[in-house]
Design brief:
- The structure is a single chain.
- The protein is of the alpha+beta class.
- It folds into five domains: 3-218, Thrombin, subunit H (Beta Barrel), CATH 2.40.10; 231-390, Exo-inulinase, domain 1 (Jelly Rolls, Sandwich); 400-465; 490-652, C8orf32 fold; 687-737, no CATH class.
- It is 32% helix and 29% strand.
- The chain is built from 18 helices and 36 strands.
- The chain has an eight-stranded antiparallel β-sheet.
- Helix 9 crosses helix 12 and helix 16 packs antiparallel against helix 17 (705-718).
- The longest helix is centred in the middle third of the chain and has 42 residues, at 437-478.
């Protein structure tokens, strides 16, 4: 079932746990709560944007072990555990998971914790009084009492029906009997009544403790995880990959918060160049290139620091072993913006460039050989993109003649283009003082004009990017027909959709990553593997080894529609996961095609000999029968038809991906984004009257009169069925009458 459909049904997943102690004498609710609170924890996981996305409850069940719900820790997310004393600890491993029962046990490196003992299975009875301790709506360690309503079997899992209030944040918290023993884990809250929930029986939790399936946290994390085949982080901090960029947050463990992220591949023989674009969140920080690194404390660094450029040799772990070889400001460095750093390492000199301007030339040869990569210091948060290593890298800035043409366009946007003054600031102030208050008023007005000009330049840059991306998309799909077998590079086209929102997306790098993944899977195929064997290996690698999964807690995040981020994070919605799956399957020689099933995109696998079957990539390529799909349509109040299971043409798949993004933009009220997605849809399907009407209306709202009139006249010329042409004529009349 589709995740957002599940949220609208009568049952919403939440979880609790029931716990107690072995003493035979019952205690009061107050006594039970007081004793249990020391073992109850708060669990958080961070989302794609490095902010808290989920909050729930857990409880100690062993030495460094905390039980909770699987949905509380998310999938592939960084997990933090807050103990009763207020201390926080990052999870070091996911000790055990039970997906069917929605249970998980995480490990933290903390000793001396007091576990809550588990009750013997099957000892809970109808009508028994129970106590829950949790964090409903973030209110830590709240207590609620209730009773056991009934014992039930749900899909083969023993469940305890509860009569007590369950709220968001209670998930994973202990439910205690009056003797302090754990009887189960509540997994569902009813929306029919606030006083009804369900708990997984304690035997499932006991089985997890007896037979764990541990996954170290580095393996668990896939959201923004760096590829270990390409990068090695040294010295702490948090290095992540997002949409073709590398981001770093948090202080490193080295002196001064130093941390490195080194490329696995060694650089070429001398001479070679290493380069990257970098942007700091605060110019008081420091981050840039590292080279000649020994994977420890010895390396060179070239980076901006407090607004100045610096070349440093690091010979050890402390400040006494650092040597600043050169440092100075540069007019070519642009604070708060992306800046291009490049280092040329030769046998006799090190040359350092910012935005193609040479800053330092050093003959220091204290360090040789080693690896190259990125460095950060202090609490700096920084972004990197376009990291490159080679013999002779291309320059970052356009040639002078190109810049002259660009600046000519910019000058036209800038209005009168007043020249910058060469006089010292004090002299300028002296000249302005006699003007009194008018001086400040005039300067602020001019500053506002320049800000407006800057905004227009930014909008122009955005429009150029959008137009170039749309032109490339048109070129890619324009020559192909609209049929199922149309020869369209679906993954490339989907990358261009993502690039509409992310100008820095490296299409070639993402294509290379998909090709590399396909090659890795191909290496694992047995000799003379047939289609079934190939499909089995594809599924094992993607879902079991790499952890690709459907996004359930963050479904409407736009990242789920960007196939490059789906590939990076291994998380997505049905259609984006299906595109990655289909493209990998095609590279492996399998016939896997998209199926535009309403509300939940599927794929159809057709073996060489045998009947086609439908796979749900959102659910780990689970096989769906026609009866399954008929039941899903029936639940939506519709009847399954053959058209629901028709193989989708590439154009239809791309349009559906864009419509997902369009729906998000409409809900968020972002009209400029709505217009951009409509432009892309009409590039793919120029005869879509519905989308042309929507674009006409959106253009009019944004004051783009010419664009709105162009679409209106197209509609009047083509007279498509189902369109109220009188309203179109009224809009034309209104727009033409405007000054």
């Amino acid at each position: 079932m589709h995740p957002h459909t599940t949220l609208t049904t009568a049952v919403l997943l939440f979880c609790l746990a029931s716990a107690g102690r072995t003493a035979a004498e019952p205690r009061s609710v107050e006594e039970i709560a007081k004793a249990a609170k020391q073992s109850v924890v708060t669990i958080r996981f961070t989302g794609r944007r490095a902010s808290d996305e989920g909050l729930g409850t857990g409880f100690v069940v062993g030495d460094g072990l905390v039980a909770t719900n699987l949905h509380v820790i998310g999938e592939a997310r960084p997990i933090t555990v807050e103990l009763a004393d207020g201390s926080t600890h990052d999870a070091t491993a996911v000790h055990a998971t039970d997906r069917d029962a929605d249970l998980a046990i995480v490990r933290i490196n903390v000793g001396g914790l007091t576990p809550l003992p588990l009750a013997d299975p099957g000892t809970v009875v109808d009508g028994q009084e129970v106590v829950a301790v949790g964090n409903p709506h973030g209110l830590k360690r709240s207590v609620v009492a209730g009773r056991v309503s009934a014992l039930r079997d749900m899909d083969g899992i023993g469940m305890i029906q509860l009569a007590l209030p369950v709220e968001p944040g209670n998930s994973g918290g202990p439910l205690l009997d009056l003797e302090g023993r754990v009887h189960g884990v509540v997994s569902m809250k009813s929306l029919v009544t606030p006083n009804l929930g369900f708990a997984v029986a304690v035997d499932r939790l006991g089985d997890l403790l007896d037979r764990p399936n541990p996954v170290v946290i580095d393996r668990w994390l896939t959201i923004g995880a760096l590829d270990p085949a390409e990068w090695t982080a040294v010295g702490g901090a948090r290095w992540r990959q997002r949409a073709g960029r590398i981001l770093v947050t948090g202080a490193g463990t080295g002196f001064g918060g130093r941390s490195l992220c080194l490329a696995v591949d060694k650089p070429p023989e001398l001479p070679y160049e290493v380069a990257v674009w970098v942007k700091l969140d605060d110019e008081a920080g420091a981050a840039g290139l590292a080279f000649a690194a020994d994977s420890g404390d010895r390396h060179y660094g070239f980076y901006p620091s407090a607004g100045r450029l610096r070349l440093t040799r690091f010979d050890g772990p402390d400040v006494l072993s650092w040597k600043i070889l050169d440092e100075k400001p540069s007019p070519r460095y642009r604070p708060g913006e992306w800046n291009h750093l490049r280092v040329r390492v030769a046998a006799d000199a090190i040359s350092c460039f910012v935005n193609d301007d040479v800053i330092f030339t050093s003959t220091d040869r204290g360090l040789t050989g080693g690896r190259v990569g990125l460095a950060k210091f202090r609490d700096t948060e920084a972004e990197f993109r376009g990291f490159a290593v080679g013999r002779d890298l291309p320059r970052a800035m356009p040639p002078a003649n190109v810049m002259a043409r660009i600046e000519a366009v910019a000058a036209a946007v800038q209005g009168d283009g007043a020249a910058a003054a060469d006089e010292p600031a004090d002299d300028l102030v002296a000249k302005l003082l006699p003007e009194g208050d008018a001086a400040r008023t005039g300067l602020m007005r001019r500053a506002a004009e320049l800000e407006q000009q800057a905004a227009r330049l930014g909008a122009l840059a955005s429009s150029v990017h959008t137009r170039r991306t749309l032109d490339e998309l048109a070129s890619l799909v324009g020559k192909a027909d609209t049929q199922v077998g149309a020869d369209i590079d679906l993954f490339h086209a989907a990358l261009l959709i993502a690039k509409l929102d992310n100008a820095d997306l490296d299409v070639a790098a993402s294509r290379h990553e998909l090709d590399r993944l396909a090659a890795d899977i191909r290496k694992q195929l047995p000799e003379a593997a047939d289609g079934e064997a190939t499909l089995a290996v594809l599924n094992r690698v993607l879902f079991d080894e790499l952890g690709f999964h459907g996004s359930r807690g963050d479904y409407y995040n736009r990242s789920n529609s960007y196939v490059n981020e789906v590939l990076d994070d291994r998380e997505g919605i049905p259609i984006s996961l299906a595109v990655v799956y289909m493209e990998l399957a095609r590279r492996l020689g399998l016939t896997v095609e998209g199926v535009g099933f309403p509300g939940h995109f599927l794929v159809q696998y057709t073996p060489e000999n045998g009947e086609p079957r439908w796979l749900d990539i959102f659910d780990r390529a689970a096989v769906r029968t026609r009866d399954d799909l008929a039941a899903e349509r029936d639940e939506a109040g519709e009847e399954l038809t053959d058209s629901d299971l028709t193989v989708a043409a590439p154009r239809a798949i791309l349009t559906r991906m864009l419509n997902n993004l369009l729906g998000i933009a409409v809900r968020e009220g972002k009209q400029a984004d709505v217009l951009r997605y409509l432009d892309a849809i009409l590039v793919i399907d120029p005869d879509s009257a519905r989308d042309r009407v929507m674009r006409m209306i959106t253009s009019a709202r944004l004051g783009r009169r010419t664009a709105a009139l162009t679409d209106a006249r197209w509609l009047l010329d083509h007279e498509p069925a189902g369109i109220d042409l009188d309203q179109v004529r009224s809009l034309v009349a209104r727009l033409e009458s405007e000054p």
